[in-house]
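#struct-pred

JT: dropping the chains for the assembly here, can someone run the whole complex?
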Amino acid sequence: MGGRLRERIGFVLAAAVMLAVLVASEPRARILFSEPRRVLGLYFGTAPSGLPIPVDDVEPAQLVDSWHAPRSGGRRHEGIDIFASRGTPVRSTTGGVVVRRGENRLGGRVVSVLGPGGQTHYYAHLDDWADIEVGDWIDVGTTVGFVGNSGNAATTPPHLHYGIYRRTLPPLNPFPLLTGAAGS
Ligand SMILES: [Zn+2]
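RK: done, full complex below.
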């Protein structure tokens, strides 16, 4: 076997191993490979021009636009804080697939849902998660968790931090989408 061929086989093997590691470690990749049509349908679907408020019994007039307000460590607020009693259900603003259900330092207990237009909807500071798992396909209004103040919200009243992320573009301000001001 020539050195060149061996090199090529080595390259293909390395690529296969990297792909396997990616699929095993990255929920999105795993979901993509298990249901490629549905996931691609989301990525190529149209992003919504308006969204329901993800917290029960909150009206648009109660929402406050805190987009890009200063936050600790020189960060800027990349979302909206929706205040409500602890334990109030948090519902998905879109259909899509659960790509994260876990904990991180800032967000505490969090859920991320990949929705139409390839947008990722981020629900943070949850008191607890609903009965959902990564890979679950959910509808608009499916309960993903319950309002709390986990993560760096421990010293604030319970609220949902809701953010909308895009793959290659900056995050979106949810406020106009939730209040109906975004139009189409
Ligand atoms: Zn926030």
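JT: nice. The longest strand covers residues 120-129. The chain has four helices and eight strands.
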